[in-house]
Design goal:
The chain has helices spanning about 5-10, 25-55, 65-75, 90-95, 115-130, 140-150, 170-180, 200-205, 215-225, 235-245, 270-280, 290, 295-305, 310-320, 320-330, 335, 345-355, 385-395, 400-415; strands spanning about 60-65, 100-105, 135-140, 155-160, 180-185, 230, 250-255, 280-285, 360-365. About 50% of the residues lie in helices and about 10% in strands. Helix 1 (about 5-10) crosses helix 2 and helix 7 runs parallel beside helix 9. It is globular and about 80 Å long. It folds into two domains: about 25-55; about 60-295 and about 340-415, TIM Barrel (Alpha-Beta Barrel). It binds zinc ion. Zinc ion binds near residues 161, 255 and 370.
């Protein structure tokens, strides 16, 4: 810290234009500058303490974390120190002030038995919870969540990502509800038999105009009956509007950003954001640089092209685009870091929703451990407090920040519960 600006003080006290030495109090001026800087420093510390205090007092809910997929790929344990390997582990959740985590249980339907694959992922989370009862607890209701937070523990819930896991059976849906599933993203990038995805609707004419099938509508109604949130992240626009027509409960977008700011195929258009607000639901903003910064995808394509041969052979060896991408980004860390979107852009997405429909309809769905290029400064789950800091700097009140960090999502979860 540069407290001593002696040279500046001497300059300030030098002769003025008429050549008459009017002021010559170098040491005094130096003193007052020092005092001023010291005060600023103290104010800085106080501000840092206050944003952390506001952050820690708020209930932070993240509706999308893909750590369980990492477990399937690498057999990682959430209770190990995974710094440098993943975005998440139990200790860093704590540092980041996280209170409630929806763990994503993903499937693209290409597994031999997606229902069993989902259960294996839930088993892996249950094992961590069993080993760490003082740190993390499985919850299913807002009441249970609040009790767990009061005990200074993390509340864990499940979100199914893909819809394939129910294998077209409402009985399977019931069983997954019993294991802690509280939302389903009705599709992933690929469609199910009963709902079309954003990717398929945009890229394959065969899916145009399909949306939700009759069974798809039954799934939505059954979820409404159970008290399970319907999640529209990844679904196509036709499916989205079919869901809005069918659901009797507020819905969520568990990890989606704003199309107007970044026209990526599965980001939400203004009309969709307005419809979610009318439905009293919530949009949980995705952190992925490619979803918040409209220049990132083009830059990322160029980055991959630079390492095309290596990328191709990794993809061939791992049989996974995602793992190959991750390996290339890890290997060329400096180049990859240049792709990261500014944190201010993420805040812009949050603010866009607020300006369009109000502060009651936006929250956090990071997609940590499912994304390869997080925004600058948001290195992992320990970085959440920087979002609170940025919101304070933008002038948001404590009340509004509480809503954004988790209050809005808990309202929607409560509204879905069966009383
Ligand atoms: Zn996703």
């Amino acid at each position: 810290m540069g407290f001593d600006l002696g040279t500046t003080a001497v300059n300030v006290s030098g002769n003025f234009t008429n050549g008459i030495p009017i002021i010559n109090y170098p040491s005094n001026i130096n003193m007052s500058i020092k005092l001023f800087l010291l005060l600023s420093f103290w104010t800085g510390i106080a501000e840092a303490q206050s944003y952390r205090r506001i952050h820690n007092k708020a209930i932070l809910v993240d509706t999308h974390n893909d750590f369980l997929s990492k477990v399937m790929e690498h057999n990682f344990s959430l209770d190990a120190d995974l710094k440098g390997k993943t975005h998440s582990d139990l200790a860093r959740f704590k540092t980041g002030g996280l209170d409630v985590q929806f763990f994503s249980v993903w499937s693209d339907g290409n597994q031999k038995n997606p229902f069993a694959f989902a259960n294996r992922q839930i088993d892996s989370l249950d094992a961590v919870i069993k080993r760490n009862p003082a740190k993390i607890v499985k919850t299913g209701t807002v009441k249970e969540i609040l009790e767990v937070i009061k005990e200074n523990k993390i509340a864990a819930l499940i979100g199914l990502e893909g819809g394939h896991q129910i294998e077209n059976s409402l009985e399977n849906l019931d069983l997954l509800y019993k294991r802690g599933t509280r939302y389903i993203t009705l599709t992933w990038n690929n469609s199910t038999d009963w709902a079309t995805s954003a990717f398929d609707e945009k890229t394959n004419p065969a899916f145009k105009g399909k949306g939700l099938s009759g069974f798809g509508r039954e799934v939505v109604q059954h979820m409404n009956k159970l008290g399970m949130l319907v999640d529209v992240s990844h679904v196509g626009e036709k499916t989205f509007w079919d869901i809005m027509e069918t659901t009797t409960k507020p819905i969520i977008a568990s990890h989606s950003s704003v199309y107007t700011l970044c026209p990526f195929r599965r980001n939400l258009k203004d009309e969709q954001i307005k419809a979610i607000a009318r439905n009293n639901g919530v949009i949980q903003i995705n952190f992925n640089s490619g979803f918040i910064d409209s220049t990132e995808m083009r830059r990322e394509d160029a980055f991959i092209k630079n390492h095309q041969a290596e990328y191709d052979s990794l993809q061939h060896a791992t049989n996974s685009e995602y793992i190959a991408e991750e390996m290339i980004h890890n290997k060329y860390r400096n180049e990859s870091d240049k792709l990261r979107a500014p944190l201010a852009l993420l805040i812009e997405h949050i603010e866009y929703v607020i300006r369009l429909v109000g502060v009651d309809y936006v929250g956090i769905g990071s997609d940590f451990d499912g994304i390869v290029v997080p925004p600058q400064q948001l290195d992992d789950v320990s970085s959440y407090p920087l979002i609170t800091k940025a919101l304070i700097e933008k002038g948001y009140s404590k009340k509004d920040i509480n809503k954004i960090l988790g209050g809005n999502l808990l309202r929607v979860l409560k509204a879905n519960e069966i009383h």
